[in-house]
Design goal:
alpha/beta; 6-stranded mixed β-sheet; 54% helix; globular
Length: 920
């Protein structure tokens, strides 16, 4: 929340003190200094005082664009006990007189105050140098993703900008992307700057050496334990086991399975005991002794056959599996089953094997495989619960290598389900675990997971950086190269850059022609944007490969969606038939699989935009209404949909006249503000409407600016709530404010706005520790007016939509989620004012929308007001004006328009009122 000037004629008595941002303090610091500075001559040591250039070492590792502050000296890591150097206010005042915002900001950065630097840079003229120094300030505040994005944008304009390249290397290094950082330091070194180039070469060399040492150490262990399972005379690699006990234990089981005799197993016993001491327990020693006691006249031939399959990486035949089942050699059976993941086997076989084998590592391995099978069977919820339980058990047993692998798989599942914050959190936890153990392969897998979580959040710079690091670890491995470049192609297509996407896809295919389902999807879009003769055959070949493998129901539907979009390029009728088939078959699976929901959503979007493409605008309202689950409008409505670079908007005038517009020329992704998306001629068809219903397909349904502020309009949302059987006994105004959120969230209490009491009815306020989710939901079910003053928090582990942070329940639950709202009925059909900052904001790429406003309407709210931006304390008067108009009989959209126009006329700095959305 930000403070704002009061409206004319309004008292501020009794209001909470505004929360000042850092730059409000600048005049307090600088003004006295100006008076002092003007009384004396310019200091001869001005540069040294301002930018600390008289020291033998530089205090800031990053580089600034102010030339006099960018003097090379070796960097000295600051000691914690070093006294801080005061900011030279006298000299800053001189720069203030000269209007040198960049110089002031540079001084603040060098003196360790990035917040003040940002405040001054926001007032500096736009330039690449200003952008570099802003990125430095953001980097010092540890907002690495944001700093990287800003630097990447700058370097697209000026690729050889020395300071930006240097700073990009620092950001990548601090993100843990050491090889990426080394590559950028190489670029700096090639610029040949005295001092800087030498330090850049030294940094690059040190980073590469550290990575190479870790990689070599892990690969030695992997190689040694692989040989151990192949060569009965190979020396026991005790030291390697101590260095990398994760990969060592994972491969130890195969050494036991392939051992040709009891004697060889007894040779392995000290290795088992060493690994047991590291991981805890005695499972490996007991298992080794147990297998050593087997009859090797019967076991040895089976072990030899298993060793051959392992060496050739071949699946087990059904005959071999049958013989293993009859032999009682349970460990060989498990190993063969894991080598043959698509075999079905008797029900419960894997669990029975694990239960008879008292080893938590094996138990977790089996749970992982069972979760994979449940996913393939369309039981994704069950698979997710199984993996969560496995992670809990893994942490209890302190089997950290297994935990890292399970966390990475949970991240993949969360990404597939569009729970992107959860995906990133679990991927990062997996990465930390893998790095702490030196598990090179698990680190690489976690990098892939981090890249995917960033890609689906449209954090392009971070996604590219993670992918580049992943590739740099194995640049000559074809699978790694193929994976990296096809995902880079997807990123470029998301940025609406077909030429770059094509180039990346060609690099993916340079050593391996297969590009998977994601590649087929990209190619179908490129066939529309940048078609090549060979594209169709490639897409059909990829779809054939998908059909030939066992895939989840969601991925099967995605493949059918790609096929439908391919057919659409040749025949609209044939393509539409396939699109409608995808939608029909998705319906029973929508609640179970996010890929299914994505397939259905994109199918609807494609139907809508291709109808606009051929001028069939009358079809668009029915398609979008069907997707949203609302009744198709007949008049005074705007319907909008988008897909990639294509948008379609259709106006239904006051007499039902249809006027549409299709656009396929957009070169950049849509922003948060949709102003200009609807052409003036389409808006003109709606100007005589008293109010306009907007039916917008995701992701357009959570952004402002679709229609101008002088029009009365609202987003139309589906409601599953039945009409109240009777009116509530009496009006009830519910206020949720001053909430005592969990201390770990670090959120300040938000008091209610400066509003008059509710115009009619009784009032109920829930605050402090009383404002728990359960109590708030119970009161909401009875209220006729609801006003919520609490922080909006994005936590994908709790909800797809932003959640409202409330006081914790006895079990720690604190979030009011859209999912919980959908479980109740708002009997009072309330008008809801969401004072949670950015309560309507959603990630830009979700094909499906799940927001708090939509959940309120779905449960019976008459109207919900929410903003896509942070809103100031003075918003209370704005919303109170809207509410008074509604109670006086105005329609919510008409009330919103009237108050919005009044504020735009009368209140200084109130553009945020155009970012308030209404859902009905």
């Amino acid at each position: 929340m930000a403070a704002e000037l009061d409206a004319p004629g309004k008292s501020t008595r009794g209001r909470r003190a505004p929360r000042l941002r850092a730059w409000h303090l600048i005049p307090l610091l600088v003004f006295p200094a100006i008076l002092i500075a003007r009384s004396g001559p310019l200091s001869g040591r001005r540069a040294e005082v301002l930018w600390l250039t008289d020291t033998r070492t530089r205090p800031l590792e990053a580089r600034l664009s102010v030339a006099t502050a960018d003097v090379y000296r070796p960097y000295s890591i600051p000691r914690e006990d070093r006294p801080s150097i005061a900011v030279p206010l006298r000299e800053l005042a001189r720069l203030e007189d000269e209007g040198d915002r960049a110089g002031i900001a540079a001084s603040y950065l060098l003196h360790g105050d990035p917040q003040q630097a940002l405040a001054h840079l926001s007032q500096a003229p736009a330039s690449v140098n200003r952008d570099n120094d802003q990125a430095v300030a953001i980097f010092l505040l540890k907002r690495h993703d944001e700093a990287l994005a800003q630097l990447d944008t700058l370097l697209e304009t000026e690729p050889r900008h020395p300071q930006a390249l240097w700073n990009r290397a620092l950001v990548l290094r601090d993100m843990g992307l050491q090889l990426g950082a080394a590559a950028v330091f190489d670029e700096v070194a090639r610029l040949g700057e005295p001092g800087w180039s030498t330090e850049a070469r030294e940094n690059a060399s040190a980073l590469r050496a550290a990575v190479a040492q870790r990689a070599a150490s892990w690969k030695r262990t992997q190689s040694a334990f692989t040989r151990l399972a192949q060569d009965a005379h190979f020396p026991i690699p005790m030291e390697e086991a101590r260095q990398h006990p994760g990969i060592a234990r994972g491969l130890y089981y195969d050494a036991v399975r392939t051992a040709p005799s009891s004697a060889r197993l007894m040779e392995l016993l000290p290795l088992a005991q060493t690994l047991d001491r590291i991981h805890g327990g005695t499972a490996l020693e007991e298992h080794t002794r147990n297998i050593a006691a087997r009859d090797f006249t019967r076991r040895a031939p089976l072990a030899a056959e298993y060793a051959r399959l392992l060496h050739e990486r071949q699946p087990a035949s059904e005959d071999f599996l049958t013989r293993l089942r009859g032999s009682g050699e349970f460990d060989l059976l498990l190993g063969a089953r894991l080598l043959t993941p698509n075999t079905k086997g008797p029900p419960g076989e894997l669990e029975r094997v694990a239960q008879g084998w008292s080893d938590p590592w094996i138990g977790l391995l089996v749970q992982d495989e069972l979760a994979r099978q449940e996913d393939l069977a369309g039981e994704s919820w069950r698979a997710g619960q199984r993996l969560k339980a496995a992670v809990t058990a893994c942490r209890e047993k302190n089997l950290r290598p297994r935990c890292a692998g399970l966390l990475r798989k949970m991240s993949h599942r969360a990404t597939s389900a569009n729970r992107l914050s959860e995906a990133e959190e679990t991927a990062r936890a997996s990465w930390r675990e893998a790095q702490s153990m030196g598990e090179w392969e698990l680190e690489s897998a976690a990098l892939r997971a981090l890249a995917q979580a960033a890609r689906f959040q449209f954090r392009v710079a971070s996604a590219r950086a993670y992918l580049a690091e992943y590739l740099a670890r194995a640049p000559d491995t074809c699978e790694v190269k193929n994976y990296t470049y096809r995902n880079l192609a997807a990123l470029e297509l998301m940025r609406l850059r077909p030429r770059e996407a094509r180039q990346a896809l060609q690099q993916a295919q340079s050593c391996q022609p297969t590009i998977g389902l994601i590649g087929a999807w990209i190619l179908t879009d490129l066939m529309r944007l940048d078609r090549r003769p060979e594209d169709e055959a490639q897409v059909r070949a990829e779809l054939d490969r998908v059909r030939a493998t066992r895939e989840t129901p969601g991925r099967q539907l995605l493949a059918r969606l790609v096929e439908a979009r391919l057919e659409l390029l040749k025949s609209r009728a044939a393509g539409n038939k396939l699109l409608n088939s995808v939608i029909h078959d998705a319906e029973p699976l929508m609640a179970l699989d996010a890929d299914v929901r994505d397939a259905a959503a994109v199918a609807y979007q494609t139907l809508a935009v291709t109808a606009g493409e051929v001028g069939a605008f009358a079809e668009v309202p029915g398609v979008v209404a069907r997707q949203l689950g609302v009744k198709a409008p007949t008049q005074c409505a705007l319907v909008a949909a988008m897909e990639a670079e294509r948008t379609v908007v259709v106006a239904l005038g006051p007499r039902g006249q249809v006027l549409g517009h299709h656009d396929a020329t957009r070169k950049e992704p849509l922003g948060e503000d949709l102003t200009g998306l609807v052409p003036d001629k389409v808006q003109a068809a709606l100007r005589t409407c008293p109010q306009v219903d907007v039916l917008a397909a995701p992701p357009l349904d959570s952004r402002s600016g679709l229609l101008p502020p002088e029009m009365a309009w609202s987003y139309r949302v589906a409601s599953t709530a039945a009409a109240p059987k009777k009116k509530p006994a009496s009006p009830l105004h519910l206020m949720v404010a001053n909430v005592e959120t969990p201390s770990g969230l670090g959120l300040a209490r938000l008091s209610s706005w400066d509003t008059t009491p509710a115009p009619i009815g009784a009032s109920l306020e829930l605050s402090g520790a009383q404002a728990t989710p359960s109590r708030v939901l119970e009161a909401m079910s009875r209220a006729t007016d609801i006003e919520v003053h609490a922080h909006g928090v994005v936590d994908r582990s709790l909800s797809e939509a932003p959640v409202i942070a409330l006081a914790p329940e006895y079990d720690g639950r604190y979030a009011l989620t859209s999912e919980a709202l959908r479980q109740i009925r708002l009997e009072g059909a309330p008008v809801v004012l969401l004072g949670a900052c950015s309560a309507a904001r959603l990630p830009p790429l979700l094909h499906q929308t799940s927001s708090l406003p939509q959940a309120f309407v779905g449960s019976g709210a008459r109207a919900v007001f929410a903003a896509t931006v942070d809103i100031p304390d003075s918003a209370g008067r704005f919303f109170q004006g809207v509410r008074e108009r509604i109670h006086a009989g105005a329609a919510p959209s008409v009330a919103l328009r009237a108050e919005r126009l009044r504020w735009l006329r009368e209140v200084k700095s109130a553009p945020w009122v155009t970012r308030v959305l209404l859902y009905e």
